[in-house]
Amino acid sequence: NAGVTQTPKFQVLKTGQSMTLQCAQDMNHEYMSWYRQDPGMGLRLIHYSVGAGITDQGEVPNGYNVSRSTTEDFPLRLLSAAPSQTSVYFCATLGTSKNEQFFGPGTRLTVL
Amino acid sequence: LAKTTQPISMDSYEGQEVNITCSHNNIATNDYITWYQQFPSQGPRFIIQGYKTKVTNEVASLFIPADRKSSTLSLPRVSLSDTAVYYCLLDRGSTLGRLYFGRGTQLTVWP
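The joint structure predicted for all components is written out below.
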């Protein structure tokens, strides 16, 4: 099993551009989340999903959209990138025992 | 989201036991205490979780006093590869993945 995969690993955008960060999992976990991590900081929750067709906002949702059409995929969309969105983005799933989150390798995004 | 307090950084030498203490004065009855480890350029990795008393696995031990207002993660005989950031979190289960990650504790192990 690949676990949680994220693409791309690195991305550079110009202010105002849009893009989608991809997240896929093959563990059949219902719950998925997106976090961002800024230098020297902990992770902050952006959006999360408790199952296909259901999403909700986390701590810092502004500037991001999500959708969950399948159990496997949970893409994160930046509608109009801003320098403040320069960060490392992690996707995670919640295991069936509900006590352990599995994180992807991250996407490092730079907005110029 | 319930928050925790832990030291910003700690140093140790190889072979020593390391204890990282976390304060969670406002812990709720249905909160579990959970620790994650994060290496540079990687996502966090689950280490251990407990509710009360002591929990031990192949990686670490977690000590929780009766009042549950603090907890201590114990790493036996650390090596250089244990250098990482360690996060203490409260997980209510019902939060469905909505975990609060503070700044964590940067543990540096020296040879």
